[in-house]
Amino acid sequence: MVAPLRLGIIGAGVHGGRYLRHALADVPGLRPTVICRRDRAAGEALARDTGVRYEPDAARLIDAADVDAVLVATPPSSHLELARAVLAAGKPLLLEKPLTATLDEARALARLDAGGAPPLMLAQTLRWNPVVRRARQLWPSLGPVRLVRLAQRLEPTALAWQHDPATAGGGSVLLTGVHLFDLARFLTGREVVAVDSRQRNWRNRACEDLFLARAELDDGALVSFEVSKFGRARGGLLEAVGEEGQLLADYQFGGLRIIRGREVTTEELSADTPTLPLVLGDWLACARDPARPAPPVTALDGLRTLEIAAACYRSHARRREIAIADL
């Protein structure tokens, strides 16, 4: 029998806590053993509730003898330092998106990860969404896709660190937009070459809570990216217009339509399947098999999304289109 992979989680807050519970209940072969959280009282309480050990120091967790692999779910400003430490310890790493807080940090981490061992996987969880995966299966049937729209609606954040640019690294562009940037690459198989973006601060005065961007892909197709986090709205919208048809999907609430002329085909797909167990399962397979091909989402994938984010911020500041090649 193969021994379970012993998991340490750094950043066992709201999202890290979700990872912990799924790892405990839904991923055979993965056994959480240690968690780290800045809020010591909350960390100790979570450790007691889940039967794991609490460690207040991230460096000690990384080096712990009862930790074989590490999941990092901390704010972006800490990602580079923690990722360096985990990889230096020779332990597989699952890193929450975005890859880092800045483009320079992303470039540094991508260089560090170029060797591929131990594996670093970026948790771009929307790639595991069942509606997104079905859309990718259907994509070729649309013919050449010339126009894509990706939009995410979320309520205002209650997390204090997301109101602190030094900790968060940015707002809707960096924290949520990277989901959409990654989906554009995942679905189309193309790269973004230029971006024109504008941002607003409506409820979050420190970090943008609305952005709209028009991007051009390397085949000439156009993509619209939208994220709003200022009102009582929630949604995940995907539209693709190809020469042979149109796809409309809702990856938040489910459902997908293919339209060809006046002919409409509807699929009642659920979007309720939790993505975190699927992410953890694929990462576990990578962590256990050093000969396995690159993880489903690599540091290089994360770098590409950070390039798009950086172009969005520069475009807003300069009020013009920015070419990715000029970053």
Q: Please name the CATH topology of the largest domain.
A: Dihydrodipicolinate Reductase, domain 2
Give the % helix: 25-40%
The CATH class of the largest domain is identified as Alpha Beta
- How would you write the strand order of the largest sheet? 14-13-12-11-7-10-9-8-15
Q: What coarse outline follows from CA principal-axis ratios?
A: globular
Question: Overall mean pLDDT score?
Answer: 96
Q: Can you describe what's shown?
A:
By secondary structure, the chain is of the alpha/beta class. The protein folds into 2 domains: 5-125 and 276-298, 3-Layer(aba) Sandwich (Rossmann fold), CATH 3.40.50.720; 126-273 and 307-326, Dihydrodipicolinate Reductase, domain 2. Helices cover 35% and strands 26% of the residues. The chain contains 10 helices and 15 strands. The strands form 2 sheets. The protein has a 9-stranded mixed β-sheet. Strands 3-2-1-4-5-6 form a 6-stranded parallel β-sheet, sandwiched between helices. Helix 1 links the parallel strand 1 and strand 2 (30-36). The longest helix is centred in the last third of the chain and has 20 residues, at 299-318. The chain starts with a strand and ends with a strand. The mean pLDDT is 96.
